[in-house]
Design goal:
With about 90 residues, the chain is mostly helical. The chain has one domain: 434 Repressor (Amino-terminal Domain) (Orthogonal Bundle), CATH 1.10.260. The protein is built from five helices and no strands. It is elongated. The two termini are about 25 Å apart. The model has no long low-confidence stretch (mean pLDDT about 95).
């Protein structure tokens, strides 16, 4: 990734799923709780809309699936949204 790029939460989720050989259903299972709701959460994340903030619930589900902290995912989301905002201002 270059200095002019920044990974979104969805970019990292896809990368991690691919590296682990998981499909969306396996990911939803590993997120814990209701699989149907988790699939909806994954659909929501795939929108990659910088106006929408990752919530703590989704961050906790990603943390559970990948064995990380929720803070990691919240920080990735915040950094990506700030980057997207700066890019929009530049493209203005």
């Amino acid at each position: 990734m270059s200095d002019t790029e920044c990974a979104s939460v969805w970019d990292l989720v896809l990368e991690e799923m691919e590296s682990r050989g998981w499909d969306r259903l396996e990911m939803a299972r590993r997120m814990g709780g209701d699989e149907t709701l988790n699939l909806c959460t994954l659909d929501f994340l795939s929108l990659e809309d910088p106006r929408i903030m990752l919530g703590s619930g989704a961050a906790n589900m990603l943390a559970q699936a990948f064995g990380t902290s929720a803070t990691l995912w919240l920080n990735v989301d915040q950094r990506w949204r700030e980057f997207a905002k700066q890019q929009a201002e530049v493209e203005g």
